Predict the 3D structure of the following.
Amino acid sequence: MAAQIPIEFQHLVRYEPTYSVLICCPCKMAVGKRGWSRHLRARHTISKNERKLLLTALDPVCAIESEDRFPQPADVQEPIRGLEIYNAYKCNGCDFITKNDQMIRRHIRKSHGESLFLGSKMEWRAVKVQQWVATGKAAKYWIVGTGLEVASLSLPLTSTDYQEPLKGLSWEDRMERTEMVRLSKQDRDRIVMTDAKDVDDTTPWLLRTKWPQIFGGKSLRLIGRTRYSELDPQTRTMFPDWTDRRTKLIGFEFDRVVMRARSTLILTSDSLRLWLQSSRRNEPSRRPFRTLQRRGTDRKYGLTWKQFLYYCLRVFGLDSETREEQYGVVFTGEQLRCLAEVNELIDEVLLEREGEELEEDVEEMDEDDFPYQSDDEDEDESEAQDQNASRCYDSTNMIHNTVTLTSADRLTEKVFELCIKFLTQTFRHSEDESKAPLVHFCGVLGIDWKQSRFRDPGNYTPHLAGIMWISRLLLLEYALPMERYSTLDWPAREYYQDHRWQLEWVRREFMLEGCPTPLGYMVSLMAYGKYTAKQLGRMGVITWDADGQGLQIKDTRVTMAGFKTYIRGIISEARDIMNKELLFGVGEMRLDLVNMRDVMTEKKNGFSMIDMEINRLGGGLRYLLNLVKSASPEKTLLKGAEEWRRDRVLRYLERKKRY
């Protein structure tokens, strides 16, 4: 049947004879025979003549005319060639299927009860699905066989087991099946390093980080998803005993640790902060280490460390063999001891607070929306943050001045000790530093699990900056805490006669570039990442059509005609708001935009293009005052002749601000 499509168009259209459906190969979706003209104009940049030739070639093909008449294939069969294969979740209690891990959890909770949702990990299962189209009546899923009814690529081509299922197929079909098996194996998110890949498929950045070797043969999706506060159904099967209450409690306790450390930072002199910021042995930084983040950035930096704690505590619960095979992280004896003690205290606190609603943790950000932090910060905001931290310090101070510590207070201090055990780990000469928890997690941050690849340095260094900032803050708290840690028996800073040398000891041991420690590794990696990113530049995200009449921005397509319509709509809407609301429906703003002039080189203080006579923009205040008096009773801002109505004036100013 493929011969019905001219060979010059077979890369674009495929005919599925079993279901009498035409499939668009680049879009990996089916299109009704009547809809091909519209589809080609909207989604593909081919010439008008080529479009006519293709539509003429499709005329004799016996295909279904519209998408709503597409048949529903049966489940558990071979995938239909040309259609996308999706990861999805199927409810075991009914026929509900969704690609969204949040939707399957919500469905189980609403349709089958909260108790089933919490009590069993078998309420849903991961499946592979296909669909004809993404929207409309034909947007229904059917389950396809993940094995593709053929042998694994690991078998040689001469194997009779491999050749048997392919008998009777043409050479092209056999090659296509072979490629589908390879892609299916790749879709399991595992990286398999070979000698050729080690030489050809790596960049200087990946050669430096060694991430392909560190995560070779492991599931990038599993490792990448384990760090999030909310686990998807597939990852949750690895940690069936992990609950959302544990996640919330860990996040809350780490927030207390950070508040205490921020208070210590505020009460630390600038001279010490200069050395804290520096990664060089004998040279202070030109800028002190400060809490000068944009609004919300310090919260997101803290979120990265919370994810690190979630990751470690979850992986700690696995047996050592599974931990090594699936993740490749190795804990020291001291770290294992701290992890066990933290786990015990978490259980104790959760038991004490049974039935009590725990505070919600912060919302997690999108993988690609991590903020880039510049050095230029807002002083006013920093001052406000310092005041907030001072108030936090007062409350923390009261807690730790009490005679007896609660289980939650002991948990806070143990969480801090665990963080310090990770930060002060020293690598021995024969030790593989990539298996150290913090270094390993730096690699986890480099995984783009959605694309099953590693991040380039331009997208990675902002993530690394967040974990480094929190690391410095915690090490300052370790060196010079304002208050004594009773559970750990660590003294306050008053115990040390020379604060500078106490901080210097911590710096030289754990914080300098070249130190065999996690922070020393991060400093070196950050320097190389910034240098590489500057040399390579950022990858473009816009692809223009050949005729220049459309472009693609990631997954969004924009046509020039649609963009012009969008701009005209904005201008029209702005004009309506101006005339009907801001000018009270009695005035109209007429501007000669063609002849309007401005002087971009004018440096005179207070200069404005409004004052230039050629623009005829003067007298605006008198004009508006006249409009206020001419407005209808429903829109006027006056009460009586000359008294302002406060409520209407405030609403008017709000509309003006929105405009």
Q: What stands out?
A: The chain is about 45% helix and 5% strand. The chain has four domains: 2-69, 86-214, 243-528, 557-658. The longest helix spans residues 244-266. The two ends are 59 Å apart (CA to CA).
